[in-house]
Amino acid sequence: MDDNIPVNVFDLTVDWIATEKGLIETKSPYPKPTGIVWEEVSEEDMETMPVLKEIKELISNK
Length: 62
Description:
Blueprint: E1 16-19, E2 22-25, H1 43-48, H2 50-60
């Protein structure tokens, strides 16, 4: 694909696409995220996805 699609630090690209005709390896040049980018997580996100709040509390207590 030649389109210039913006990629954020938290985006996860696929490595493979499965179709009825077989598997296609994407060979994505983009690195995988290494964890949650807390600067991008809002209070609303924390309320909508309580697991984020739990993870943040767990890592804060270390």
